[in-house]
Automatic annotation (TrEMBL):
Residues 46-77 are annotated as: Disordered. One of its GO terms (cellular component) is ribosome. SUPFAM superfamilies: Ribosomal protein L4. Keywords: Ribonucleoprotein, Ribosomal protein, RNA-binding, rRNA-binding. This is Large ribosomal subunit protein uL4. Belongs to the universal ribosomal protein uL4 family. Part of the 50S ribosomal subunit. Coiled coil: none annotated.
Length: 209
């Protein structure tokens, strides 16, 4: 698959990038995408939620009323969950939400996500660029030139670039990552994926296995 390479002003450079069909033009596996996104979101959960149960509540242990003859249900402890101030019944406990997903499945999911974006013509290839210093204004100008100012965008660099990263950090609608940080969730969460030329080799090396 060939895609025109543009510069940071949105103008075509006259060159084309050859995107690997093994990564950007496969038959998408929607279930693999679902599982990888589910794992990513599960891994974000801290799992530190906790509610006090009746054994952890401070209170009297005396029997609060006689067993029979009251006409109401028997009750043996003020710490029971049926009373105000009592322990919570079947409350949340700390737990680990993460689960295992093998590497082959994760690679398939990322290839599927990139192929879905390619089918939607939501992938743009931009020549490598840098800023002299971190400036959010310069980064916004790049997004405007690419027609992505009001869209959620994912910019993928070949290698870490501090000036570009810091220039984008204040923008909620745009995220800058390196090719090694690419995930199915981030691809699917963006309206448009911007690939710098320097990132293509790393993406294809990591995913075309």
């Amino acid at each position: 698959m060939k895609v025109a390479v543009v510069d940071i002003k949105g103008k075509e450079t006259g060159r084309e990038a050859n995107l690997s069909d093994a990564v950007f033009a496969i038959e998408p596996n929607n279930h693999a995408v679902y599982l990888d996104v589910k794992q990513y979101l599960a891994n974000q959960r801290q799992g530190t939620h906790k509610a006090k149960e009746r054994a952890e509540i401070s209170g009297s242990t005396r029997k609060i009323k006689k067993q029979k003859g009251t006409g109401t249900a028997r009750a043996g402890s003020i710490k029971s969950g049926v009373f105000k101030g009592g322990g919570r019944m079947f409350g949340p406990r700390p737990r680990n939400y993460s689960f295992k997903l093998n590497k082959g499945m994760k690679r398939l999911a990322r290839r599927s996500a990139l192929s879905l974006k390619a089918n939607d013509k939501a992938i743009t290839v931009v020549e490598d660029f840098n800023f002299e210093s971190p400036k959010t204004k310069d980064f916004i100008n790049v997004l405007k030139a690419l027609g992505l100012e009001n869209k959620k965008s994912l910019i993928v660099l070949g290698e870490s670039n501090n000036n570009v990263y810091l220039s984008s950090r204040n923008l909620k609608s745009s995220e800058v990552i390196t090719s090694s940080e690419l995930s199915t969730y981030k691809i699917m969460n963006a309206n448009n994926v911007v690939l710098l030329e320097g990132s293509l080799e790393g993406i294809e090396t990591n995913l075309a296995k």
